[in-house]
Protein backbone atom coordinates (compact mmCIF):
# COMPACT_ATOMS: atom_id res chain seq x y z
CA UNK A 1 0.00 0.00 0.00
CA UNK A 2 1.40 3.39 -0.90
CA UNK A 3 1.58 6.12 1.69
CA UNK A 4 -0.76 8.31 -0.39
CA UNK A 5 -3.36 5.55 -0.67
CA UNK A 6 -3.15 4.93 3.09
CA UNK A 7 -3.55 8.62 3.81
CA UNK A 8 -6.61 8.90 1.53
CA UNK A 9 -8.17 5.80 3.09
CA UNK A 10 -7.63 7.18 6.59
CA UNK A 11 -9.11 10.56 5.64
CA UNK A 12 -12.24 8.87 4.22
CA UNK A 13 -12.59 6.79 7.41
CA UNK A 14 -12.28 9.91 9.58
CA UNK A 15 -14.95 11.70 7.55
CA UNK A 16 -17.21 8.62 7.66
CA UNK A 17 -17.00 8.49 11.45
CA UNK A 18 -17.80 12.16 11.97
CA UNK A 19 -14.22 13.31 12.43
CA UNK A 20 -13.32 11.01 15.28
CA UNK A 21 -10.80 8.26 15.31
CA UNK A 22 -11.94 5.34 13.14
CA UNK A 23 -13.36 2.51 15.18
CA UNK A 24 -11.19 -0.52 15.61
CA UNK A 25 -12.24 -4.10 15.30
CA UNK A 26 -11.27 -6.03 18.41
CA UNK A 27 -8.81 -8.77 17.57
CA UNK A 28 -9.77 -12.14 18.94
CA UNK A 29 -6.83 -14.44 19.52
CA UNK A 30 -7.30 -18.00 18.32
CA UNK A 31 -8.24 -20.38 21.12
CA UNK A 32 -5.52 -22.46 22.72
CA UNK A 33 -5.29 -25.97 21.33
CA UNK A 34 -6.17 -28.88 23.60
CA UNK A 35 -3.52 -31.58 24.01
CA UNK A 36 -3.21 -33.73 20.86
CA UNK A 37 -4.74 -36.77 22.61
CA UNK A 38 -7.90 -34.82 23.54
CA UNK A 39 -8.63 -33.22 20.18
CA UNK A 40 -11.96 -34.09 18.61
CA UNK A 41 -11.77 -35.09 14.96
CA UNK A 42 -14.48 -34.92 12.33
CA UNK A 43 -14.59 -36.07 8.71
CA UNK A 44 -15.58 -33.92 5.74
CA UNK A 45 -18.64 -35.27 3.91
CA UNK A 46 -18.35 -32.72 1.08
CA UNK A 47 -15.79 -30.44 -0.56
CA UNK A 48 -15.79 -26.93 0.87
CA UNK A 49 -14.16 -23.90 -0.78
CA UNK A 50 -13.48 -21.00 1.56
CA UNK A 51 -15.36 -17.80 0.66
CA UNK A 52 -13.30 -15.64 3.02
CA UNK A 53 -9.76 -15.62 4.45
CA UNK A 54 -10.94 -16.80 7.87
CA UNK A 55 -12.67 -19.89 6.46
CA UNK A 56 -11.22 -23.39 6.01
CA UNK A 57 -11.14 -25.13 2.62
CA UNK A 58 -11.23 -28.92 2.60
CA UNK A 59 -12.06 -31.95 0.47
CA UNK A 60 -14.39 -34.90 1.01
CA UNK A 61 -12.72 -37.34 3.40
CA UNK A 62 -10.37 -34.80 5.00
CA UNK A 63 -10.06 -35.13 8.77
CA UNK A 64 -10.52 -31.87 10.65
CA UNK A 65 -9.46 -31.22 14.24
CA UNK A 66 -12.17 -29.22 16.02
CA UNK A 67 -10.67 -26.46 18.14
CA UNK A 68 -13.82 -24.50 19.05
CA UNK A 69 -17.54 -24.54 18.40
CA UNK A 70 -18.27 -20.94 17.36
CA UNK A 71 -22.06 -21.34 17.27
CA UNK A 72 -24.67 -23.89 16.19
CA UNK A 73 -23.65 -23.63 12.52
CA UNK A 74 -19.92 -22.79 12.42
CA UNK A 75 -16.89 -24.37 14.06
CA UNK A 76 -13.19 -23.44 14.10
CA UNK A 77 -10.63 -26.09 13.28
CA UNK A 78 -7.67 -27.23 11.20
CA UNK A 79 -6.83 -29.98 8.78
CA UNK A 80 -5.40 -32.90 10.78
CA UNK A 81 -1.64 -33.03 10.25
CA UNK A 82 -1.39 -29.52 8.78
CA UNK A 83 -1.70 -26.85 11.48
CA UNK A 84 -1.20 -24.11 8.85
CA UNK A 85 -4.60 -24.84 7.28
CA UNK A 86 -7.12 -23.56 9.78
CA UNK A 87 -10.30 -21.53 9.89
CA UNK A 88 -14.02 -21.64 10.45
CA UNK A 89 -16.14 -24.19 8.62
CA UNK A 90 -19.82 -25.14 8.36
CA UNK A 91 -20.86 -27.84 10.82
CA UNK A 92 -23.30 -29.38 8.32
CA UNK A 93 -20.38 -30.38 6.02
CA UNK A 94 -18.87 -32.82 8.54
CA UNK A 95 -19.66 -35.95 10.53
CA UNK A 96 -17.96 -37.58 13.53
CA UNK A 97 -14.70 -39.24 12.51
CA UNK A 98 -14.64 -43.00 12.87
CA UNK A 99 -11.17 -44.40 12.03
CA UNK A 100 -12.64 -47.72 10.87
CA UNK A 101 -14.33 -46.14 7.80
Spell out the blueprint of helices and strands.
Blueprint: H1 3-16, E1 40-44, E2 63-69, E3 74-79, E4 82-90, E5 94-96
Antiparallel strand pairs: 1-2, 1-5, 2-3, 3-4
Give a description of the structure:
This protein has 101 residues and is α+β, with helices and mostly antiparallel strands. Helices cover 14% and strands 30% of the residues. The protein contains 1 helix and 5 strands. A 5-stranded antiparallel β-sheet has the order 4-3-2-1-5, with no helix packed on it. Strand 3 and strand 4 (82-90) form a beta hairpin. The model has no long low-confidence stretch (mean pLDDT 79).
Quote the average pLDDT: 79
Low-confidence stretches: none
Strand content: 25-35%
Q: How is the biggest beta sheet arranged?
A: 5 strands, antiparallel
Number of distinct helices = 1
What is the number of beta strands?
A: 5
> Based on CA inertia axes, which overall geometry fits?
globular
Helix residue percentage? 10-25%
Ends distance: 49 Å
Structural class: alpha+beta
Q: What is the string of SSEs from the N terminus onward?
A: HEEEEE
What Rg do the Cα atoms give?
Answer: 19 Å
Largest sheet, spatial ordering of strands: 4-3-2-1-5
